[in-house]
Amino acid sequence: MKTKDRIVAAALQLFNEQGEANVTTNHIAAHLGISPGNLYYHFRNKNDIIHRIFQQYAEHLRKSFTPVTGPASASPAVWFHYLDAIFYVMWEFRFFYANLNDILHRDPELHKKYLAVQRELAVNLQALLRELNAQQVLAIPDQEIDPLTQTLKMVVSFWVSYQSAQSLDPRISQAVLYEGVARVLLLLKPYFHPEKGAELAKLSEHYQALARTPSDPFHK
Amino acid sequence: MKTKDRIVAAALQLFNEQGEANVTTNHIAAHLGISPGNLYYHFRNKNDIIHRIFQQYAEHLRKSFTPVTGPASASPAVWFHYLDAIFYVMWEFRFFYANLNDILHRDPELHKKYLAVQRELAVNLQALLRELNAQQVLAIPDQEIDPLTQTLKMVVSFWVSYQSAQSLDPRISQAVLYEGVARVLLLLKPYFHPEKGAELAKLSEHYQALARTPSDPFHK
Amino acid sequence: MKTKDRIVAAALQLFNEQGEANVTTNHIAAHLGISPGNLYYHFRNKNDIIHRIFQQYAEHLRKSFTPVTGPASASPAVWFHYLDAIFYVMWEFRFFYANLNDILHRDPELHKKYLAVQRELAVNLQALLRELNAQQVLAIPDQEIDPLTQTLKMVVSFWVSYQSAQSLDPRISQAVLYEGVARVLLLLKPYFHPEKGAELAKLSEHYQALARTPSDPFHK
Amino acid sequence: MKTKDRIVAAALQLFNEQGEANVTTNHIAAHLGISPGNLYYHFRNKNDIIHRIFQQYAEHLRKSFTPVTGPASASPAVWFHYLDAIFYVMWEFRFFYANLNDILHRDPELHKKYLAVQRELAVNLQALLRELNAQQVLAIPDQEIDPLTQTLKMVVSFWVSYQSAQSLDPRISQAVLYEGVARVLLLLKPYFHPEKGAELAKLSEHYQALARTPSDPFHK
DNA sequence: GATGAATGAGTATTCATTCAT
DNA sequence: GATGAATGAATACTCATTCAT
């Protein structure tokens, strides 16, 4: 693993554990046993590191939320895929969600990338919902697709912040994020096709069980 | 106006305009034309000032969301009252919403007060929704009252952050917050009694109109 | 009791309890329930207060160490008088002994007064020792009177500091100061007339007993 | 000379010249022509610098007062060694002696180290005195060894403070410290073996001469 | 690729003292 | 006599970033 990648990985880890504001570039360097100068050889900036992390984040979003089309999209496996992806992104980049505005407003270039990714994501989500409508899994009135997409994005975007504000401990657990996944499912519940009720119940059960797990297992 | 109050007012204004993290105690003092020492004569801390602002915030919440009981709660005036209160609190303390976690996790004492206020608010909101159920204005199934309360709180709590993240300009307009009020109404829409449809439409119209207003008028 | 005197008394108490450097003029005023302005109405300075305390200190020294002359000086009561006076002055003005150099070098005027008092004290002590020589209580060779005086003064002057440095707790107990009194007696021991041995033993016993007392009684 | 060492040396010099309390970290940095940030790159704290100085102090004490055993301890050279060491430590770390209690009570960790060093020193001094007894240089009754050790330590510890209080100028001269060395010798005088009188006189003469020297030579 | 010493602007806070009322 | 609001200079410490080697 190259130094450049090790820096990104260490920064991500420390940001997630301690909050981006509390992690200095010197901390990252010390954590890796390299010199601060070396860190600045690979990255022009602290923000530059965050850009690289954001890139990973964006790639995950793109890969994970490319709409599956055709009958395959009706299978339960697809639901697990999307919901696990939501969890993964919330957990892996929780520092980003926890400090979204600080990070974005400090760096307009990153902010623009973020907005582009969000737009793209919205398009994908809408396509996805329409596909699920077509596959008779969901039944969302057309004019509600847009606001629902927005609500979903908003809940996912601020679930980490919301939960962090609920506890004196700034760190969040995986359990709390699975709760967020279950909440997303709840938002979709009114639109599930009647005969998909059992399927929904099973999914819901699955994530609620994970939300009850005290340890931090990762769904595979 | 006493110096102590002028400090609180100036701090609130500057925090809202520039973000709490970017406003130093010296900035506040300079903005008022007083010495830093004088500021520290009236407040022990920067946090002490924030505590005072939070107190104002909490008082507004308490006063504004004390549930109205009896037939009066069915009048449209009550809706205007509550929705305007939501707007007021989001606008007047937007710096707080925009930096919620930073502020809370830096000051555990404040965090405890915040959690207490939130609990109290949840109780009041639930009582309010039940009363509106009783008055046949809403028809929320009992087991949905709690999750709905949570969702409402979450949307209000992070609307400012959410909207801030959507724009390159960190400052948010009143219009955007009226949009948030309209969104709250939207969350309640499914539960409105059928014959209250017209009333709802009127309310919705009102706030959507405000959300379209480019200048910053304030509903009275 | 006049405000002026109350200020001096409060300052002395707080200085002794918490150390002069840790007691601000505002502390003193708050402790008395008066305004800082009022304190400065009565005293030009924090140093001015210390001057007043020093004056009390100097008066005690003068009164207590005026040499008793004639056969009376041979009585044990005289010894108790002098040794109790040493204890009193160490206890009552322990903040002064604990911060001697800080206080003196910050205020040359006070320093001059201090040096004058010390010179006067040295003269008195020497006269006293000579009288005790004359009364056949002590037998100090003439050329040793001066160095002995100096040693006595030095031990008394820095006993408080010395003991404070021996303990992690900056506060000193009365017991520890009685130990200092016993130490003074020890310095004189070699010069006691052989037949005064019993008397010396009794004195020594007395102060060593007090040094063992855990509570803080005051000898009268 | 490395920057780290230069900082320690400059701090020691400025502390000795102006008193520890009057020397800020910025003063030290400015005096060396380096940035305050650089100083904090090498030391976490002002206290951290003092810890480093204390370490040097402790090392000197340990090295210099390791008891010499055997007949060698009877030679005059040994006396010069010990008395010069006393002088050196009083001179080189005079700021420490001048502000002992301020420095110790502000930093409990340092205070503990200090007490440990003092205990070790007491043990060494007692061993040394016993060896000199064995070598027939001194004749100290066994039960007087402990109090004598204490007195020696106390005189050395507070000689700097004592002398500083005697003069309006807070700075102390080397001459005055040589006087302190002579005083130490005086305390031992009663216990010198009769036939060592000439030797003692020579030693005493030596340090008294240095105490009379206005310039600041250093015995080698 | 990597080191690590160096920069310097920035920030919250303290406290003896003043003065209009 | 007394109030209490106001002053302002001073201080320890941080951290993203640079650059000679």
From TrEMBL, chains A, B, C, D:
Q: Which residues form a coiled coil?
A: none
| Gene3D superfamilies listed in its UniProt record | Tetracycline Repressor, domain 2
Molecular function terms from GO = DNA binding
| Recorded superkingdom | Bacteria
What UniProt keywords are attached to this protein's entry?
DNA-binding
InterPro entries, per the entry: Homeodomain-like_sf, HTH-type_Tx_Regulator, HTH_TetR, TetR
DNA-binding interval(s): 24-43
PROSITE patterns to which the protein is assigned, alphabetical: HTH_TETR_2
Membrane-spanning residues? none
Q: Where is the HTH tetR-type domain?
A: 1-61
Q: Which Pfam families match?
A: TetR, TetR_N
Key word Lipoprotein present:
no
Protein name per the record:
TetR family transcriptional regulator
